[in-house]
Automatic annotation (TrEMBL):
Keywords: Cytoplasm, Exonuclease, Hydrolase, Nuclease, RNA-binding. This is Ribonuclease R. It is an enzyme of class 3 (hydrolase). It is found in: Cytoplasm. Belongs to the RNR ribonuclease family. RNase R subfamily. 3'-5' exoribonuclease that releases 5'-nucleoside monophosphates and is involved in maturation of structured RNAs. It comes from the Bacteria. Its EC number is 3.1.13.1. NCBIfam families: 3_prime_RNase (TIGR00358), RNase_R (TIGR02063). GO terms for cellular component: cytosol. It catalyses: Exonucleolytic cleavage in the 3'- to 5'-direction to yield nucleoside 5'-phosphates.
Length: 787
């Protein structure tokens, strides 16, 4: 029943109670409908909601309003234990404690007759539907198991070190288990050799001394070229062996034919990829639009491998692909989402071979905007396989034997179309961060040869912009057909993060005014102001950390970073499950034949899939990052004592994290080793500041360091600081006239860094810093993917 008090608007408490009772489902429209508010009342309602958001009572996610840091209706969670009543308790598998605080607890309700696949226990990971409850103190959510994703394990991964008696010890590779070695008796070694990477089962714990374990599997020598990525694969339980039924389906698959397809084999589509790419799932072509009503415009074709033709809903290939969620890329190997016969053979758009594809034909106006688009299921034949640098060199006047004949008929029209598309992109003004990505090049034995920063070329930007256009076209088409889909969404930064960014920019005398709705252009104006300045990398880093992380969702709340209202991943179905769902939806929407999205596929079902593949994406990112850290730590292990130059990449109460210029390696400088005074952590400045001298070390500062210790298995480095910091001048004012030195928390013996409390904190910190610790802060934020 709609409720509206006689005296006017519903009270704030009533509005908040309604939002709390419907987590993730309430927007302005739903609130107005619930309380019987008319159109004229909505201005006042929006004002009230804005006040509630400003004081932190509610938060906005796209068009939906919820309690701050509320869980979505469907979440992937880990069962961590039981409460005093014996009920299972779970916490979200992915939770940013720095941003949202302690992860909320979910009380699991077990039905009398659970459905198959929904019986879970402690240690299991499962998809859960959740809702808010006030019944149990300290447990704000209750939920039900929708599907068990992974059962708990007692297996531990580590390095085997042999003892003289023939037994050995396990040194865990998981940093959380650091220092907790396990004893392995001689009969339980399983033939493991010193230095082997092994997995063990815990068989006995003791009150005193080492716990005991039994070797379950030998994974190879830590010195072998495959061992480093194997650590991450096994630590994060990334599936690397396909089921026999999936492999059988892949082997039985036949090449696509012209049956039920348009014939595009004469269209000179080309693939442009990195030189070491194993699969090619997108091809492009452009030509001048002959339509006199679109003078100066172009027609752009983007063809994408027709994975849906081979991977049918509910098949063994489909089940394996969903479990993986995406391919995982390591410097020494790829763990693919699909078997090699599918990904590198039947679906790879190799030159000269007929391949099935799903293509979008886009008409681009002279202003660079997409005027219209159509989708086609067709048979194509790639005209050439090009590398980015190879295509760029041809455009720059240095064609080779392959690109020479392609330059005028194919490459120049592509670049001309790109010049138009850039006009619309610049007008859209998406977030424009300049953060170079490093790439590790390996020797034949799998060890690091060198680390490079590949040059960012127009060829890269061309493909990126054409793919974005195709992704937008897919989302628009499916919305027009009113079909469910999985969006790629990116929320705007939280108010707290924007406030923290504003406070930081004040320390650099850089304005950041938030007027009206937040837009990427506001961040871009700041980035433009610091272009070419010494602190440009610092500001780029802090702006990146202020952003939310992109994810997959069945609900659309737009893509903030790209400044797009609707966006879906369509262009990489070989390596991303989300794209496969979009392909199936397009086939169903347009009646394009076999492999369509099932008619019973609902928004609720896709929400579960979106939650699962968002987690697998983050799992892959973490595994890739950890492998890079371990490889570089191995590379630097014999360089202990050498000096390097780098930038401060993270500032925490534990110390400074420094990224080296030449390798991009990250390491920690423990705070206890910095100078001869106590240092306070200034969160606003992203700095450590000496309480006596005012010496300051800030995020982005260039410093010289000495490598003190390298722990290759953990991927950790420890540095010693060689550079002097900046000094805050006496009498410099900020924050309404407060002395900046006083504001930083130091003075004549009365700073928060002096006295017994500070001495106790230093003792605790010194204990923690005896061993190198892999970074917890600074690194994780930089790893965020917002595309």
């Amino acid at each position: 029943m709609k409720r509206k008090p006689d005296h006017g608007f519903p009270g704030r408490d009533a509005i908040v109670a309604f939002i709390r009772a419907n987590p993730g489902k309430v927007g302005t429209r739903e609130i107005a409908r619930q309380f019987g508010l008319k159109n004229d009342d909505r201005i006042e309602l929006k004002r009230i909601l804005r006040e509630l958001a400003d004081d932190g009572t509610v938060a906005k996610r796209g068009r939906k309003i919820h309690e701050p840091a509320a869980l979505p209706p469907t979440v992937l969670a880990d069962i961590t234990g039981r409460d005093s009543d014996g009920e299972l308790i779970a916490t979200p598998a992915e939770w940013d404690t720095e941003e949202n605080g302690t992860a909320p607890k979910i009380r699991i309700e077990t039905p009398r007759r659970p459905k198959p696949g929904t019986t879970a226990g402690v240690g299991d990971r499962a998809l859960r539907g959740v809702e808010v409850t006030d019944e149990h103190a300290g447990t704000p959510y209750r939920g039900r198991v929708i599907k068990v994703i992974d059962h708990g394990r007692t297996r531990i991964l580590g390095i085997f070190r042999r003892n003289p008696d023939g037994g050995g010890r396990l040194i865990p590779v998981d940093k959380k288990q650091a220092g907790r070695e396990l004893n392995i008796a001689k009969p339980d070694t399983g033939g493991a050799e010193d230095g082997d990477l092994i997995s063990v089962d815990l068989i006995r714990t003791r009150s005193f001394g080492l716990a005991s374990a039994r070797v379950k599997e030998r994974l190879g020598s830590i010195a072998s070229e495959k061992a480093i990525s194997l650590i991450a694969i096994n630590t994060h339980d990334i599936p690397q062996v396909f089921s026999s039924s999936a492999l059988r389906e892949a082997e039985d698959a036949k090449p696509a034919t012209l049956q039920g397809r348009e014939d595009w084999r004469d269209v000179p589509l080309v693939t442009i990829d990195p030189p070491d790419a194993k699969d090619h799932d997108d091809a492009v072509h452009a030509e001048v639009d002959p339509d006199p009503n679109n003078k100066g415009g172009f027609i752009v074709h983007v063809a994408i491998a027709d994975v849906a033709f081979y991977v049918r809903p509910g098949s063994a290939l489909d089940r394996d692909a969903l479990q993986r969620g995406n391919s995982v890329y390591f410097p020494d190997r790829v763990v693919p989402m699909l078997p090699e016969r599918i990904s590198n053979n039947l679906c790879s758009l190799v030159p000269g071979e007929p391949r099935g594809a799903l293509a979008v034909r886009m008409v681009i106006g002279a202003d660079g905007r997409k005027r219209s688009h159509t989708f086609h299921r067709m048979l194509m034949r790639s005209a050439a396989k090009l590398a980015y640098a190879q295509a760029q060199a041809a455009i720059d006047g240095r064609p080779d034997d392959i690109t020479g004949p392609l330059l005028d008929p194919i490459l120049k029209p592509l670049w001309s179309a790109y010049e138009l598309v850039k006009l619309a992109r610049n007008e859209r003004d998406p977030l424009d961060l300049d953060l170079p990505e490093r790439k590790i090049l390996l020797k034949g034995d799998g060890t690091v040869d060198r680390v490079i920063v590949p040059q960012r070329l127009d060829a890269h930007r061309l493909i990126e912009e054409f793919m974005i256009l195709a992704n937008v076209a897919a989302a628009e088409m499916l919305e027009k057909k009113n079909l469910p889909l999985i969006y790629r969404v990116h929320d705007e930064p939280s108010q707290e993060k924007v406030h923290n960014l504003q406070e930081f920019l004040k320390t650099l005398d850089l304005p950041f005014t938030k007027q009206g709705a937040l837009r990427p252009a506001q961040f871009n104006r700041v980035l433009a102001q610091v272009s070419g300045e010494d602190y440009e990398p610092l500001v780029n880093e802090v702006v990146l950390r202020s952003q939310a992380q992109a994810e997959y969702s069945a609900e659309n709340y737009g893509h903030f970073g790209l400044n797009l209202r609707r966006y879906a991943h369509f262009t990489s179905p070989i390596r991303r499950y989300a794209d496969l769902i979009v392909h199936r939806a397009l086939i169903r929407a347009l009646g394009l034949g076999e492999g369509a999205l099932p008619t019973d596929e609902s928004v609720e079902t896709l929400a579960e899939v979106a939650a699962q593949i968002s987690v697998t994406e983050r799992r892959a990112m973490k595994a890739e990052r950890e492998t890079t850290d371990r490889l570089i730590a191995h590379f630097l292990a014999d360089k202990v004592g050498a000096s390097f130059q780098g930038r401060i990449s993270g500032v925490t109460r534990a110390g400074l994290f420094v990224k080296l210029d030449d390798t991009g390696a990250d390491g920690l400088i423990p705070i206890r080793t910095i100078g001869s005074e106590y240092f306070n952590y200034d969160e606003t400045r992203h700095a450590l500041i000496g309480t006596r001298s005012g010496t300051m070390y800030r995020l982005g500062d260039v410093v010289d360091v000495r490598l003190v210790e390298a722990a290759p298995v953990a991927g950790a480095l420890r540095f010693e600081l060689l550079s002097d910091g900046q000094t805050i001048p006496r009498g410099r004012k900020r924050d309404g006239g407060r002395d900046e030195r006083r504001a930083a928390g130091f003075g004549k013996g009365h700073s928060k860094g002096s006295g017994k409390k500070a001495h106790k904190e230093r003792k605790v910190r010194n204990k923690k810093d005896r061993k190198p610790a892999k970074q917890k802060s600074g690194k994780s934020k930089r790893g965020k993917s917002w595309m």
